Amino acid sequence: MNQESFYRYLMTQRNPNSADEIEQFANNAFLDSAFPKQSTDFEEISQYLEENADYLPAMTIFDAAWRRYLDAMN
Question: Strand (E) positions, 1-74?
Answer without folding.
Answer: none
